[in-house]
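User: I've been going back and forth on whether these two constructs are worth ordering. Before I decide, could you fold them both?

Assistant: Sure. I'll take them in the order you sent them. The first construct and its C-alpha cells:
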Amino acid sequence: MKKNFCSLSHIQLAFGFTLLASGVAIGQMRVITGTVKDNTNNKPISGVSIFQEGSDAVATTNSSGIYSVQVSGENPVLVFKHSDYPDRKISLGDRVAVDVSLGKESDKGSGSENEKAIEEVVLNAGYYKVRDKERTGSIAKVSAKYIENQPVTNVLASAQGRMSGVSITQNSGTPGGGFDIQIRGKNSIRREGNEPLYIIDGIPIISETPSVYSAAILPYSSISPLNAINPNDIESFEVLKDADATAIYGSRGANGVIIVTTKKGKKGRSELKLNTSYSISSVANRLKMMNTSEYLGMRRQAFQNDGITAIPAIAYDLNTWSQENYTDWQRELIGNRSDASVVQLSLSGGSDNTSYLISYGHQEQSTVYPAGFQYKTNNLTGNFSYRSPDRKLEVNLTNTVSFQDNNVVNDDLTKRSLTLSPNAPALYNADGSLNWENSTFTNPVASFVSEYLNSSSFINTGTQIAYKLFPFVSLKFNGGMTYNNFEEYSLKPHTMYNPSSGLTSANSNSSKNNSSSFSYILEPQIVGDYDWNDHSVEMLVGATLQQSETRSGTLQGYGFESNALIRNIAAAKTKVIGDQINNQYNYTAVFARLNYKYLKRYIVNVTGRRDGSSRFGPNNRFGNFGAVGAAWLISEESWMKNMSWLSLAKIRGSIGTSGNDRIGDYQYLDTYTVSTNIYNNITGLNPSRLYNPNFSWEKTLKKEVAAEFSLFKNRWNLSAAYYENTSSNQLVGIPLPATTGFPSIQSNLPAKVQNTGWELETSVQVLRNSKFRYDTSFNISIPNSKLLEFPNLEGSTYANQYVIGYPTTLVKVYQFEGINPATGLYQFTDFNNDGKISSPDDNKVIERIGMQFFGGWSNNLSYGPWSASFLWYFVKQRNWNYNRQMVIPGSMNNQPVEVLDVWSASNPSGTYMPYSSGSVAAKTSAHSFFQNSTAAIGDTSFIRLKNIQLSYSIPVREFGIKEAMIYVQGQNLLTITKYFGLDPEFALTGYLPPLKTYSLGFQIIF
C-alpha cells in the first residue's frame, strides 16, 4: 500500500525534535510488545510491519509473530500491514501489550475490544497506486491466491470469469497457444488492432509473438506473450478499463491495459518454498459420430440418390476396406491423456531495509495426440528491493528470464478425427510401420513425421528508483528492457507421404523463421503530495522514451541428401531466402496526473498525455490524450455516519480519450518488395504501398458512470458500472481502383465503432467465524457493440461485411427455409427474386455473432486446515455450429449422429437433405449455401465448472516446518451446453478445444 508521506502528522513529526528542545511535551515514550497471528488457523505471522500512525519507525514480527515497537502520545494508533492480509489499526489507550489477529475480519480483539480489520486493497494503476476505496477509475484485480488455485500455464486462463468487462477466450487446447482477450469489446475493425497493452513490472512488452508457420496448429498463429511468465510468480494481475485508468497510457490504452506484477520478497526470516504438481488432461467433450453400419448405410444411400449404380473404385470404404471394422477416431487421434509436471523452488526474505526473492520453475506438458510431442518451459525470477534507513531512497530491481521449447504436430488432427471413415484401416502395420493400405488410405498419423517447433528466449528486466527530495516531493525513475528471441521450424520430410509415390529426401522441405526484438524504456518522474487542512493533492509529471527494434527473416530449403540434415537449410539443394526485415519503433511522451481530495470524500483525478510515434506520418506524428475522473464518497458525509449498516457508498465517473497505434511500422511510407523476376541479371523492386503523410491514431472516447456500496461492516459489497466507448479514425486499408496499381492505401477511415455495456459485481462474506468461513462473489457483463458510422459503406468492398447499427462481428448469411419436397434440396430465400441464389444479392440475413452476456460465480470455503474453492463461468452467445464445417453428408467423410435425421417422404421434418456422394453439382452447391446460412449459426451458450480446488494444511510446525499443504485441482471439469459441436468456447472452428484437467500437488515452506 502506498503510504502518504506528506500528511499533517508527518509535518508535525518533522518539527518534533524542535518542539522537544523547547520543552513542549508530546507524550510519554513507551514500548509496545505482542504477537500477531492468523485468525483463521491461529498461526503466528512473520514479516508483519508495525508502526505508529504518523511515524516512520517500523518494526517487523519475527518467525514467531512477536514484535516490539516504540510509540509516543496519549492514545497512539498502531498500524499492522502484511501483503497477504487486510491492514489493521488499533487504538492503544494506555496498554503496553497487544496481541493482534489478522484476517478478513478479526473477532479476537485485544482486551475487551472487538476490532474490525480495514479492507485497504491497493490497486496498481501503472504509474501510481491507489486505494480501492479512493479510486475514480475502473480497475479489476486478480490476486495471487486465485491465480495459484488453477492448474494453468498462462495467467489469462486463471483470470477467465473473475473480472467483469474482460472477456478471455482460450484459442486452442494445444500447449503454448494464445488467448483472445477483449476489454469492454472490440474498438478496432482490425483483429490485430484490439490487443491490449501488456505491462510486466512496469515494462511494456509486445502483445503477440510474430509466428509465421503455426497457423495450421494455432488459430491466427497466436502465441500469448504471457506464456513467458510462470503464474506462480505473479503477485497480482490488474486490468485498467476506463478512460481515467487508461488515458495516462495515451496512444496505447484504447483497448485497455493489463498490468502483471511479479512477487517480491517480504520482511522476516528467509523462506524456502517448494511447489510441485502433476496433472492429467484430456479433451473435455466428444461428438457422437456414426458407427460403421450407419456410416456405410449413408454412403450407399448417397450413391443411390445420385443415380450411381456402380460404386466407383475410389470408394475404398465400400469396396476395399473391412465392412465390420470400427474405430473411434476421436479416441485414436485426440483421445490421449496429456500429462504435465510442474516444479517450482523459491527463496525469499528480507530485513527492515532489504528484501529479495529468487524463483525457478520448470514445466513439461505433453499433448493429447498419440505421439511424443512436448512443451517445456524454464522460468527464473529474481526481484530485489532496498530502502535506506532514513526511508528517502528506495530501489527495486525486477528480473524475469524464460526459455520455452514447443514441439507439436504440424497440423491439428481435430477435424480429421471427426471426418475419417469409421471403417478406415489401422494406423500401423504389424511391424510398427505406417499403414497405407495399398495406397487406399491417407494415414493421418503420417503427419506426426512432420513437426512444428518453436523456441523462445525472453528477458524482462526493470529498475524502479525513488528518492524523497523533500517531505512532499520525490524523484522517480522507471527504466528497463525487454528482449525476445523467437525461432520456429516447419519440417516436412518425404516420409510423411505415401511411399508408393516414390518420393525421397530430395522432396523433403524445411522452413525456418527467426525473429528477435529488443526494446528499452526510460521514464523519469516527479511525484508530489501535500495535505493541508481538509485538502489533499497528489501530482505526477513524467516523460517516456521508448525504442524497439525487431529483426526477422525466413528461410526455406527444398531437397536434402538425407532427412537427418533437414534442420540445416544450408544442406538443401534449393534455398529460398525471404525478406530480412529490420523494423524500428520510436515512441516518446510526456504525461501528468493531478489528484485532488477534499474532506476525504470529494475526489477529482485529471490525467493527460502527449504522445509521439514513429508509426505515423510527419503531419500527424503527435497526439493528445487525457481524462477526468471524479468520485464522491457519500458514506463519509456527516449525515451518513449514523448508518452503522453502511460501510461505503460511492459514486464515480470518468470521461476521456485514449489512442491506438497498433498498425505496424512504416505503414505510412512508400514501400517496395524485392521482385521475383530477374532481368539482365538485375533484381528489381516492386512498389507495394503508397505514401500517406496524414496517417494518424485511432482514437477512443471513453465514458463511464458507476456506483459502489459496502454493507454490514464490509460483508456485502455491490458495484454497478455503465460504460460507452466510441472509437474513430479507424486504421484500415481503404480500397483503391485497380487503375492505380494498388489494391488499397493505409489511411484513417472516418468510421465509428461504439461499445456500451453494463458491469455488475457483488461479493458476500456469508460465514466468517473462527472455524468455518465461506465467501462468494458474482459478476456479470452485458456488452453491446455497433457500427455507428461508415462513409459510403454500400459502395465499398466492406458492404457485405458491415452494417450501420450492427456489431462489427456480424455475418451475412442465407435464410434457410428447410428442404424443397419437390427437389429434395435445401432451399433459401431468394431476396431479389431472380430465380437463383447468389451472393451478395441473397445472403441478406444479418446474424449477430458474439457474446450477449458473460460472467462468473466464485466460492471460497475453509474449515480449520481444510479449504476449498470453485468457479462457474457462463457465457450467453451465438456463433457458428458444426454445420459450418460439415462436409456434404454422403461423401467419404463420417458425420455426427444428428445427420441420421435425413429428409425423406416418410420423414418430411428431417433436418438434412438426402445424402449425396458429392458428384452432383446442384447438391454440392446447395450444401455450400447451407454451410453459410442461418442453419449454420445457433446458440453456443454454456455454463462451465471452470475451476475447483481442495487443499489441506498439514500440521508440521512442531517439526520446524513453516507450512506444508497438499491439494487437488481441476480445470474445465463440466460444461453444460446445447451447442452442436465439440466445444462452445473457440476462436476458430476445427482446432483442438481447451482441455479438461485434473491436478495433484504438494507445497512445503521451510
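The second construct, handled the same way:
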Amino acid sequence: MEKNLEGKKLLILGANPETANIVKIAKEMGVITIVTDYDPTAPAKKVADISYDINGLDVEAICDMACKEQVDGVMVGVADVLVQPYQQVCEKLGLPCYANAKSAVSFNNKRIFKQTCAEYGIEGIPEYSLDDKGSIVYPVIVKPADSNSGKGITLVRHRSELDNAVARAKEESRTSTVLIERYMECSDVSIYYTIVDGKVYLSTISDRYTLRTDTSATPICLGDVFPSQYYDKFMQTEHPKYVNMLKGLGVENGILYVSAFYENGHFYVYDPGFRLQGGGFHLTLMGVNGFDQRKMLINFALTGSMAYYDLDALNDPKMHGQSAATVWFLLKPGIIDQISGLEYIKKHPSVDFCIQRFKEGEEITEQMQGTERQVFLRIFMHCKNESELKTTIKDFQNRLKVLTSSGENLVLPSLNSEFENKFYTSSQMLKNKVVVISGGTKGVGRQLALKCAASGANVIISGRDQASADEIISQARDFSGEITFKQTDLHSVKQIRDLFSYVEDKYGCLDGYVNYAGVTPASALTEATEEHFDEVFSIDIKAAFFASQSAVELMQRSGGGSIVLVGSTHHTRGNKDRTAYACAKGALFTLSNHIGKHYACDRIRCNYLVMGWTPTDGELALRRSQGMSEDELRIEASAALPLGRMTEADDIVPGIIYLLSDYSSMLTATEFKINGGEII
C-alpha cells in the first residue's frame, strides 16, 4: 500500500472495462475511487468505492460533484472523448493535469492532429477532399475527424459507397467533420511514449497485425509484436520530431499512443491517443520492463508527479533484448459449448496477463463481426527471443479451441508463425487465379481453400460432403476470392473429368491444381488385403493420376499453371504399417517428376510437397482407434521430430500458396519438404 496516497480521493472519468482495471489498481494503492459515467451499469462502477451517473462530457456537473466529494485528483481512463473534459475539470479545480488546452485538442481531433504533425515534419496519410470527389482513388477510409473510438469508420471500395460512408461518419462526429484518406495497404506500427517531468521516453514501437477482408469493415487487430522491425529507422528519422512536437505543445507528463503505417521508408501517422491505450500496452511494459503506467498516472493525479519509477533504468523500447507480443483471438458467430486449451495458456511461463471476454454458454453474433466485440482472448506475453516467441504462439494457436455443441471451432486464424499477415493483406498472391483442390472440405485442404480465397483466388473444392462445403463457402464470403464446390467421387474417373469440365465451363482456364485428397489406413505388407490395397491406390494414385491428366490438358489450353501433388515422408519406404500407402505415395512422387519434366515446355510446373507428421482428421481418427488421444499423439510426435513439434496446417498452407503463386515460377519437378526434419 502506498502510504502517501492512502485515503486520498481520486475521481476517474469513464467507466468502461479497461477503466475498471485502473480502479482496482488505485484501490490496491489505498486510494478511495470515485467513478462517473452516464451508464448506470458501466463495469468500473461495480468496483469503485463511489460512483455517479454523470456524463463525462458535463464539465460543470462533474466539478460540482468533485467539490462536494473533496477529491484530491482527477484522472481520465482510456476514452479519448474524455481527455478534453478532463483537462477542463482539472483547470477549474486547480488539480494536476498532464494535458493543456492545446495538447488536449491536438491529440483528440484527427484533422488538428494531422496539421500539428505536419508542423513538425511528421507525415500523415494522404487525404482527399470532399469538394473534389472525382479525384478520389479508391479504396479509401472515411472517418469522423474528431472521434477515436472506431465508430463511424468505413472502408470504401467504390464511388457508389462514398455518400453513405460520409453520412455515417458525420453522425459519429461531434462537429460533423469528415476525413477521407487513402487506404494504406502496407506495414502497420504502434508507437507509445511516456513523458515524465519533461523527459520524453519512447517506451515501445511494435509491429501491428490486422485481419483485413474485402468488405467495408475496417481491419481488426490480431496483435502486436515487440520490438518493431522498423525500430532503428524510426529512431533515426522520426523520434526527434516527436520529441520536438511534445515539447512544442508543452507536454511535461503523460502517455501518448500513435498508430502509423510504414511504406517505402516513410511513417504515416493516423490515430493518436493521449491516455492509456485500450489494447493494454501498459501490461506489456509492466510484464517486460517492470513499470506500471497506471500507477504513474494515479500518482500524478494525486501528487503532480509521474516520477514513480526510475525510467532511465527500466524503460527500454527494445524490451531488454527479449521479444514480446499481444495476441488477440477472434471468434466467428456461434454459441460457445466448450473451451479447451485456455488454462494451459494462462499458466504458461511466457504469459504475463490474459484478458478473457467470453465464457461457455455465451453467443458471438453476426453483429459483432468486424468489430472488437468479437475478441475472445487477449494474451500479453514475452519470451527470450523471437524464435521462442513464434514457437509459443504457434503452440497456443494449436491448443486453443472454442467449440460449439456440434464440435465446430469458432476461433479465427490469428498471428501466424512468421508474423506475416499474408493471407488477409493486399499481397493477394493468387489474385484472380483459378485453383482446384481435391479433398478441399476437410483438414489442411479446408484451410488451404480458405487461404487461397483470402489471397484472391477463385477456388473450386471437390469432395462428397456438401454440408462441410457450404460452411467453407460461407466462411469465405468476405474474401477477395471465392470458393465453389463440385461434388465429386474420386473413385470415378468420369466424375473427375466432369470436375475439370465444370471448371473450364465456369472460368475458361486453370492456373493451379492441388491434389490433397488421400486415405491413410494402416496395414503391414503381410496383413494387407486386396480391398485395402485397392482403396489406397484408387484414391492416392489412380484419382491423382487422372485428375492430373485433366489438369494438364486444361492448362495446355489456357497457357500453363502449377500442379502440387501432396505427398508424404512415407514415399521412400514408409513405416511398417503403411505399406500400400507408402507405395502409392512413391508412385505419386514419380508422377510429379514426370509432369514437371515433360510438360515444362507448356509452362506447366509440378512439384511434390512432402507433408510431415500432421494431426489431420484421418491421423487423429486412426490414433483414436488405437486408443491414443490427440495430446498423447502430440507428445509422442514432439519427442520424435527434430524440430520438436508436429507439422500443422498453418505450416503446410503457406508452402502450397507459394508453389501455386508466380513467386515459384522457376520451381518444378522438386521434392518440397515441410516436415520438421522428419525422416522415415
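Notes on the second construct follow. The first strand starts at residue 9 and ends at 13. Residues 142 and 180 are 5 Å apart (CA to CA).
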